[in-house]
Design goal:
Layout: H1 2-26, H2 35-52, H3 58-80, H4 84-89, H5 92-117
């Protein structure tokens, strides 16, 4: 079961990276646009769906928890090497790529909160 949790996390990560790369190409940017964020969103949705169907076991959660402990230091290291000044001077696209996902996530919070109360 631990391995299934890691496999779920890996599948969500790959799907998120593919979506981020595709979005970057559609926007004519040579970068991954939100791949890690999409991956985490996919993981949340997949976990909720598995819990609804009683297919998510505690051991699967341990596999996800194992990698989530490593996730925050990796993201901090990745963001530390990004140059924010260059992003602002290259136009508003970089700013919008950060603001739009935050607005979407915040607008979905009430929907997710109501879904969990049922």
């Amino acid at each position: 079961m631990l391995l299934r949790g890691v496999a779920l996390l890996a599948g969500c990560f790959i799907a998120g990276q593919l979506l981020g790369e595709t979005l970057g190409r559609l926007l004519d940017i040579e970068a991954n646009v939100g791949g890690v964020g999409f991956a985490m969103l996919f993981l949340i949705l997949a976990q909720n769906e598995l819990e609804k169907r009683n297919l998510f076991h505690v051991e699967m959660g341990e596999g996800i928890l194992f990698w989530s402990k490593m996730y925050i230091p990796i993201i901090v290291a990745m963001s530390a090497i990004q140059n924010v000044r260059v992003a602002f001077t290259n136009g508003m696209l970089a700013v919008l790529a950060g603001i739009i996902p935050v607005i979407i996530c915040l607008s979905l919070m009430p929907l997710l909160a109501n879904k969990n109360q049922r």
